[in-house]
Amino acid sequence: MSGNSLVLPIVLWGRTAPTHCISTLLVMDDFSTIITGCHDGQICLWDMTSDLEICPRAMLFGHTASITCLSKASACSDKQYIVSASESGEMCLWDVNDGRCIEFTKLACTHTGIQFYQFTIGTQREGRLLSNGLYPEILVMDATSLEVLYSLVSKISPDWISSMSIIRSHRTQEDTVVAMSVTGILKVWIITAEVSRMQDLDPVFEEESKPVYCQGCQSISFCTFTQRSLLVICSKYWRVFDAADYSLLCSVPSDNDQSWTGGEFIAADKVIIWTEDGCSYVYKLPPSEHFRSHVGKTKESLVPPLIYKIAERSDKELLICPPVTRFFFGRREPFHKLLIQGDSAGQLSLWSITDSTPQQPLSVSSTISLQEAFDKLTPVSAGIIDQLSVLPSKEEPIKVTASVYIPSQGRLVCGREDGSIILVPATQTAIVQLLQGEHMLRRGWPPHRTLRGHRNKVTCVLYPYQISPRYDQRSLVSGGVDFSVIVWDIFTGEMKHIFCVHGGEITQLIVPPENCSTRVQHCVCSVASDHSVGLLSLRERKCIMLASRHLFPIHVVKWRPADDYLVVGCSDGSVYVWQMDTDALKQFSLFQGNLPKYSHNALVVQAMKTNLTDPDMHVLFFDVEAVIIQLLTEEAQRPNPTLVSPETLQKSQAGADKGGSFLANKIFKQVKETMKETIKEHLLDEDEEEEEEMRRREEKSKSLSLLEYNLTMDTAKLFMSCLHAWGLNEQLDNICLERLGMLRPHCPISFGLISRGGHMSLMLPTFKESLLRQLSLATGLKLTLSDIVGKGTYGVSRAVTTQHLLSVISLANTLMGMTNATFVGEHMKKAPARPPRPGGTPESPRRMQATPPQPSNPALQAQIKQGNYKRRGHSFHVGVTLAAMHCVMLPDLLGLDKFRPPLCLEVRFSQALLLAELRRIGVSGRKDTIDMWASYLPQYVDTVSSRKCFASVVLGSEITNGRNLCHNDLEDTNQLKEHNWLGQITLTVTSAGCNVACR
Amino acid sequence: MIKMLNSQRSLSELPKMSAASQVERAVLEEEFNWLLREEVHAVLKQLQDVLKEASRRFSIPSPGLESQLKQENFILGSSSMDQVKGVLTLQGEALTQADINLKVAKSSQTMHFQFREDKQWKLQQIQDARNHVNQALQLLSSHDESYHFKTGTEVNKLMDAVMLQLTRARNRLTTPASLTLPELATSGLMKMFSPPMPGDVMVNFYINLSKLCLMVYQLHVLPPNTTKNFKHAGSSVLHNPGAMFELNNNRFEVSHVHKVECVVPWLNDTLVFLTISLQLCQQLKDKISVFSSFWSYRPF
User: Fold this and answer.
1) What is the pLDDT of residues A706-724, one digit of tens each?
2) Range of the domain at A136
3) pTM, whole model, 2 decimals?
4) Chain B partners of A23 at a C-beta cutoff of 8 Å?
5) Quick one: A444 and A477 in the same domain?
6) Which residues contact A88 (CB under 8 A, 6 or more apart)?
7) How far is B73 from chain A (nearest CA, A)?
8) Are residues A201 and A59 in the same domain?
9) What residues have CB less than 8 Å from A28, skipping those under 6 apart?
């Protein structure tokens, strides 16, 4: 999934929150966001209110290993950046506001600690990241590019740095880095102006190196209040050193079975120290002068008294690894001093530390876990096939444990924990979960098929035909915890064969590459938890090879077809080479696999799990460009083309050529190609044996009637319904519902944002809770979830909003040009007993739509045309008004001041750009543009000014469509640049203008 | 505990389950409890012993007392065929003395180099491996006999963490850092010798498995208007003759490569200990997984 094309994810999280075993945490400076990293590599953003209520907002994906550390990466409060590092050496810079990945890099070494610091060089301050880890240096990186600038190196006994702290000394006015090595040697580096300016990789040596005999150091920190003491926490004791000469002031041992893991100064004379199992203690240090007079004397008299204890969590029995504790204090109002703990159950606990001394152990101020937040939701967070999985006797739906999406059929295959496999049309089940409508009244909707055969949890499903056309189109392969692999006929639902060759749960099913021997080509490769690999022949229905007795779990299976070798990589790094098929006919065919018909699909349903033990959650990826191409393709294939026929496309192509636009050209080319392919396929179909054809058709219709509905239109319907800003303009909403057949979402939808390098941010279903709270506070009204559906879509972040806007406009414009510019469904109509819909009169447009145009009835045709125009007009309105709503009216409608200034600026800026561009293309250029699109203009608008506006909207959106293509296709970078910005501005400005015109 | 609770609940909830399987379940449950209570600690103890033995091999310097570490001499390239011979002194994780004799092909004379008095070469691979082993030991020490394991997941999590450290320790010894030739040329290693290393000779020391290796590259400068196709050599552990690189506007080509090595017995021991520990960890995980797949079973 490349970050360049416009792909919008929508998440169906299901009721079970993802596993979030917290490995590190961070609180932003303004105390409005908590960030946690987990052992599986995800990062969670939690919103925090000023009265310490916490609500998880989004989850960031992109790291492949456990998160080792988090740090802020910007100083100013208007851009909130954080940097995260993982066990595998990846580093990533994220925008906290929208979860965008701004920069990422990977080094061979693992970082265990990162700190942000602004070094002062003369009058300038430069943001730097200092990192330590499993290497003997401290690396200094640029905070925006993540480039290593220079490194701090030890001359004397260099070793790994276990912890470091940076301080700007009042005394010497120098930035000082103090670090403790794993062997207990304190190191001091002084960063001078000339050091900071260094660009080459010359090492900077330490200023001082002092053995302080602190083995197993966990953390060090300066007293920020006085800058006179340094706190060093080791697992068996903690010590206070003088910050000037590093002489030992006091040392406190831990109780026998506890080990300290961290601590901080909470006041000039108080420290808080916490243990590995999550207990925290507050100690009072003696007054400073008294403290120092004792240096060098016996230390027993100097053990600082324990003042109070922080109450432990009662349920920490169930934790599977030590919790993470951190202390943060606010430098601005309301000067929070927070102790925060995150544990393996994804739970955050907060203690607000006061300056007074409580008599009892300090009790927890606020606590929440990811699962608790999920449980609190009403309606509950939807899973992809929840409506089919709720058993009458049970509360919880049966969990989906493995799934695969078959794009060519639009079907989703879900293996579940009870051993059954469900085949269901993906768009329709998504509509049920996300949108309101008639389908809510039907039981067992949409039509689906259940395959029963596994006796327990299904762990993996594979549809081999999707990967290579050499397999039978009907075969579906599934593996389960019952050690079996089952082959199914997807069309009849019949169980073809059960393989029972493994001695453990099946963990993976893999398709061998193309150039294997013919025998192996008809196999699938199965991997099981007993560390064995099998080659199961689907054609012969037997296992042709079983490679077992590996000592470690199998990590990866690779192929060397030329030598007939199967190469098995195990988790400990060992590699085994197996001969696949001893009596194999050595065949070196140069067979090229067929490329999939569409290079990308309009909708891809991807199952994801953050942890192996979790049930699947599903992400719907909408590729806007692909939706448009498919819509246009289908439109062009219509037998009775009325508005957009290939001829008109041709015309537009000619126009585009004249206008120098290669975009329309490209879309057109793609449309043509896909058409050709489809036609070819039809021909092929005819070549097949009649009998076979008949049987298949019979099977298909008998099986599910799945292929009768229009997949593309359904996708577009789902997509438009999700993206429309509901609840901001009632009139528009009604038009969308009644005329266009769009459906209103149940509640705000969890969208996502794909950014650089496949990094992804997905909104958690709980995001709407904090949004609701925020909006209620802002408007002073008591709002319900359904009130904020649209605001939930458009009030989240600017990057997400921009993407949504571009998608809505381009899609609306495409639909407008179609004969059937409405989603009022046909498959729903076929159902025998449709309950009447309360309120609304959806009948008339539907009838118009359903009846095919008959030339013999001119009156009716006129009506249809009018209807079409109207509809087209409406889709215009949808697009235009949506855009306008977003660009101009959204801040007002949402009642949120914080969106206003940047948006206004953007609009003004783009206005200026557009004017410049219009001036550049001159009178003839402007005329050409409008002429080019004149055929697409609705005729009921006749004033010149608004005509112009509409023309530019069309232009804008066309370029918008093209924008995405441009991104993909770098053959013409000049055009890219031009269209890129032109698309955006035209869109913004014209929509603003249109809004006026439409009014 | 949570899994056990679940299983107990499902026990009471399921009257339809046959008596036989209920008995079987109870037996399994007991066996699982034994595993958590006894077997896990036995394995952890064994693991700790093995790793302590491994850690003892890396003699850890205590600050200030580095000079008291024992010195070991290794003779590399003892056969008369070798053009390079070296005597290296390993003290802990650093090479403190080196004595290299190099017979250059074109002249019959032997070149002789030694480390400067004030210099020593740190073998980062050994330090990294030692630190990883110690981290694994630290993880284990916080779960001694007094610790009560509640779930299988908890054991798995601990094993994963320990195995990560052990795999890394082993990988550090088995895979030396690959360097590009300019990196090697500018590394401090070339400035450590007395007499100074001539510009057309480069050396590198590293650990590969249990062997201490010495690489010597002989270079020749490519004339600026050479007809040869100049191509930068990438980073590699071992560069072959013919590899080219550019440094200070001069183009060089590797003409001869000599590699001599010598087994360090205690590194061999360490590798064996690491492999045994990894297997112990995996076996424990496999034992747990037998039960966990049973607990996750929910009849429908």
Assistant:
1) 444 577 888 888 888 888 8
2) 107-175+191-205
3) 0.80
4) none
5) yes
6) A63, A64, A65, A106, A110
7) 21
8) no
9) A34, A35, A72, A80, A82, A96
